[in-house]
Amino acid sequence: MPVNWDTNCINDITTDVSHMTSLGLESNLSTAATDKIFYYHRGIKNASPASPILVLLHGYPQTQELHVVPLLRSDIPLFIPDLPGYGRSSPLPGAHDKRSVGTAILLALTNLFPSTFRPTVILAGHDRGGRVCHRLAVDATHHPTFDIRGTVLLDIIPSLTQWKSFSTAAASVRSYHWSFLANVDLATDIIMGGGGDYYCRSNLYRWAGNRNASAAMEKFQSHNAFDVYSNAFKYEHVVRATCDDYRAGAFEDLQEEEEDQKAGRKFDVDVMFLYSSEFLGSRYNGEEWRVCMGSGNFQEFGFGDGVGHFIPEEAPENTAAAILGFYDAHK
Q1: What letters, b where the CB count within 10 A reaches 16 and e where it falls short, cover 77-112?
Q2: pLDDT per residue over 84-140, tens digit each?
Q3: What is the pTM of this model?
Q4: Looking at the DSSP assignment, which residues form a beta bridge with residue 20?
Q5: Taking Cα atoms as reference points, which of 139, 145, 125 lies closest to residue 272?
Q6: How far apart are the two ends of the chain, measured CA to CA in Å?
Q7: Average pLDDT over the chain, rounded to an integer
Q8: Domain named AB hydrolase-1: which ranges (predicted)?
Q9: Region 245-249: what's the mean pLDDT?
Q10: Closest CA to 68 of 306, 331, 321
Q11: Which of 17, 226, 305, 307 has a Cα-to-Cα distance from 117 of 20 to 30 A?
């Protein structure tokens, strides 16, 4: 479904750009309107099998990873895009299924190196970004120009497991947005009617842990994160595209996972699963991921101390340490 893209979103608020570029990253802010995908990058020219590109993908309702990057070593090549339709990135001309989203992200990455170069990459994604990583990793053989070494999945379970859990009333209420947002036209009208920025902020508070701990919330809101995230949701194209992300999660993505299981398509790369013990971990069993494992190895770590759904923002030090450990083991 084509969505009109208001390119004013690119330069509307740029405090996040100042923060990220101060860390030694470059952005394509000046060419984002042409490139379609907005991204930050660092050290791509130095990438090699011994120094893979770390691709960081954010979740809903956010944009690029603001909190983990300062804790990553400066020698690690980075590629950090806004998912299509989120933040400054253009919506896709068609559906926002994870295969199409992942392909668009890899295509944007290929523009940063010669066509003869086959980059080695490690994927790490939170929430919706994690679902893109899931699809890319299972589809690794569909992307022969990339050597996908492994993926880190943050605070998600397989979509099939998620949808099946809604057979209970409590699970349906907790994750109301899965079915609400999937009704794209209705959800877009309601969210815009009440203010997209308000809806974004309300969900940030709803899914965070330690809501009464001022230090934790101060950490989450650092770098003007709440302003950056919520400002993007003032734009109807962002609201509509992110709703289509969830619509695809109920249809194309779910069908692809079902077909994976029937055909025996699984993770043939290593997977690390990070989750919030008191949020996702209290409702689901991370062992659900083992059903999706092929020849790859699986490991999981839970974060306690009241950490909620937003692991990269609420526990950036532990998140960065886990990602670094996985990265170093796969370079």
Answers
A1: bbbbbbbbbbbbbbbbeebbbbbbbbbbbbebbeeb
A2: 999 999 999 999 999 999 999 999 999 999 888 899 999 999 999 999 999 999 999
A3: 0.96
A4: none
A5: 125
A6: 39
A7: 94
A8: 54-245
A9: 99
A10: 321
A11: 17
Q: Position 264: which residue type? A: G
Tokens of 91: 């919506």
In three-state secondary structure terms, 270 is strand
Which amino acid appears at position 236 of this protein?
A: E
Phi-psi map region of 94: left, alpha, beta (phi>0 left; psi -120 to 50 alpha) = beta
Lowest mean pLDDT among 6-10, 110-114, 272-276, 296-300: 110-114
Distance (Å, whole) CA 329 – CA 299:
13
* Residue 167: partners with Cβ closer than 8 Å, 6 or more residues away: none
User: Six-digit token pair at 253?
Assistant: 């993505």
14-329 has CATH 3.90.1010.10 classification = no
